[in-house]
Fold these 2 entries.
Entry 1:
Amino acid sequence: MSALAAELAALIREEGPIPVSRYMALCLGHPRHGYYMKQDPFGAGGDFVTAPEISQVFGELLGLWAATLWRMMGEPAALRLVELGPGRGTLMQDMLRAAKVLPGFRAALSVHLVETSPVLRERQRATLAASSVAARWHDELETVLDGPAIVIANEFLDALPLDQFVRTREGWRERLVGLDAEGALVFGLAAEPDRDIGLVAPEGTVLEQPAAALAVVTQIGRHLAAQGGAGLFLDYGSSRSGFGDTLQAMRRHGFADPLAEPGDADLTVHVDFERMAGAALAAGAAVSGPATQRDLLLALGLEQRVAALAQRATPEQRRALAAGAERLVATGPTAMGELFKVLALADPRLPALPGFDLHRLPEQRRAF
Ligand code: SAH
């Protein structure tokens, strides 16, 4: 049994079964045994690979997007470039390198990273050491939002804890993590139904409540509407709200049982982009998308960027460049280009955002 499994069992014996959100928060963020707190999980030797680790072009295109935004904002003298959950720091490194094409933008920038993991903070510090732009780290959003900002979050919302409810004959009952007779972790249901959920659905239907992710999007939307700027949320998930259990565990590039290895497997959920868009609109931000990752990267010039890099590359590098770019925009329901969506939030005074010309949220959906 892992150290965290033993601690969870003790907690549940003392306090009773815990909500899925508490389970997720402890698995990922427990100060000593949490998945992100104790290790760097990325890369071929780790548990999963993210877009910035697949191709430098990903971060470069987002860096050029940010530079264009700075221009559209009227070239403010000071702008915070904020990243939420920066992983190894690769995305920020690639963005800053690409931003060199606009020296005024680089000069206006200060870099702010929101990261809870000490291990990953160290990794980010090492990655960004050569970037010659000073970076500051924050534990949470509260301190990072101050003045005009460009906010980037890749695979961040999927790591935020959510709650689940299951439709039963008596109504919606919360899904909880408890212990079976042998002391192993099991899913169960709250004894009493939740009286606040008015939705009707067939028995057995699972409803997810991503309160933490909605709070992040609301806070950023409100800030951008008041103080200027824009934000990009990239993640896997759906453009339309729906029912279903999306909690999943990943270990060594394969799916695992979410209860089997607490703290040793990554735990994520799919992002409900329709609800995120609704929260951002309600907070006063303009919303673009969700677009697929494929559509956005192609609109931002992925092919042109790859062709430019290929000119100074060896044949082997050229093959790797093409393969990486292809993986980012690959089509099919489980391929990155389609499964991953991008939602943009912006100050409503800004014109249409680069890459989203075809993806402005239709007016009629503002009532959501
Ligand atoms: N954006 C990176 C990493 C994605 S993994 C990439 O694309 O490679 C999720 C990241 O979010 C990790 O850096 C993790 O430590 C961080 N994280 C998870 N929960 C967090 C929280 N509540 N607050 C701040 N950072 C968090």
Entry 2:
Amino acid sequence: DPRSVSERLDFWAAAAAELPWFHPWERVFEPAGRSFRWFAGAETNLAWNCLDRHVSAGRAEHTALVSVNERGDRRTTTYGQLLGEVERAAAALRSLGIGKGDRLTIYMPTAPEAIVLMLATVRIGAIHSVVFAGFGPGALAERIRASGSRLVCTADVTYRKGGDVPLEPIVEEAVRLAGEQVEETLVFPREGNAWDEFLQKGDGGDGSHVVMEANEPAFILATSGTTAKPKLAVHTQGGYQVGIHAMGRICFGMRPDDVWWSTSDIGWVVGHSYIVYAPLLFGCTTIVYEGALDHPDAGTVWQLIEELGVSGVFTSPTAVRLLMRYGEEPARAHDLGSLERVVCAGEVLNAPAWEWLQKTVLGDRIPVVDHWWQTETGGPVIGNPYGLELEEIRPGSAGRPLPGMEVEVMTPEGRECEPGEKGILTFREPFPSLTPTLWGEPERYVRDYWERIPGVWFTGDSAQMDEDGYVWFAGRADEVIKVAAHRIGTVEVETAFLQHPAVAEAGVTGRPDEVRGEVISAFVVLKQGKEPSEELRGELLQTVRRELGPVAVIGELQFVSTLPKTRSGKIMRRVLKAVVLDSDPGDITTIEDEGSVEEARRAWEELRSSVSRA
Ligand code: AMP
């Protein structure tokens, strides 16, 4: 691990030297007002590094994209073909008057056309803002407005769970709400030739790349929506690619011959970094999957791994818990021999879920590795380096700070915590893929990240570091539950519930209590085939007590069939909180399933009325 400043900067300079540059940097790092610059003066183009250089190196025939949707459509695109399409799309965008610095919104399914548009945008130095094609008109309008997009691109529908989900009416409504700034909307129906006609606009035009200074923006992306007003993280042309490339190698062991499958969506940062940009920087084959992971059936994921010879999977704890609900039989029915590792991020990969995948499904043949990051970090910050012994994995911990990262757990007052003491996770220093500002809100950037604890980056996560430097996440700092004098992380309680074999998922929140300050209110989803009963309730309370001791006082436990989650799969504990406080949950436009709120309310009411009857 680099220790001194110069060692750390040397580390990042060496990481940058693994990529080609049109012109080298003058300084590796420099502070710049309330922000910073990496590789100042260097010239690059992220999209060029993803495509042209592989084609020049003779890899035009190598498969870049394998697109798959739940209808069974398959399409492969080679690096040569992808470059050709991106050049045409770049010229077509130019013909619409889009150039360097212009913003455009992409509200499209995870499909090749969207990826071509992303790369073409970055190629000409314009800035994309991809919005998850599942958000409603209000959320989309807000993101269009905040990014100042002149152009909005969409498809007519996206395919999900056997149906067509319309996108076009949502875009129409959002563009109307966003006001005058949108000059043009491009709709690409899935059937027909609108896409080809768009590309033809570029024929004979200028599809060349623009040489960009390393600190110029490549894209902006809203954080996933646990906060009400979206924050638009900015990612650069230079530092961003250095960060995701270095961590792709160190944390995931990515190689040019990988067949890489990130089960995320291009609407999230994982989709940007590990469906699109890092796999292409490495020259891998990347799987572009549109649809639900359990459609048409519980075997879909395993079948695709076998059929496509997938060597690396990047997934989320939510997806693991979803697959776990179906049991291991669907996995057993497939040959997973091509798979070399599974990496997982987004929430804590609770030890029981890790154990199920690592041991029951994969029989300890390959590692299942948790790692931690945020939209703002562009790529991993904490993780287990690829290639470590399985014994070095500590289930339930996201691993250790990765090379080049200066991570510290601190009290809200800014004192360094002792090993094992819970505090706020912070970064002492910026690293190349860290967002240098929020789009249009430089003051909010400084206030929300660098001034909460002066001088360090405030992640908002509660965590502790053990004697050996492993980081253990307890939950979001503002969701910590205070029972008597104890501070209990939501994640700690949820993990305790998962220790019981009948539990598929749990979400908890604090409820004010006169005696103890707060008690825990728990919402539990059972595995397929398990029924709620008083006996089971008793067992679950026992399990939590055994795991966490008597401090974790469960005020009440309700069984539900689903939890409120963001579209990116994170449990929305503030919604659970609103249910138990009978208050307004605030903005829930980013929720996966609105029915889950009703469901939680119903379970809560039932419980209250049975308590009052008793
Ligand atoms: P987002 O802004 O959507 O990228 O979400 C970032 C947040 O997700 C982090 O601040 C954490 O709260 C959570 N997160 C991501 N990865 C992990 C992980 N491996 N373990 C625990 N929490 C995680």
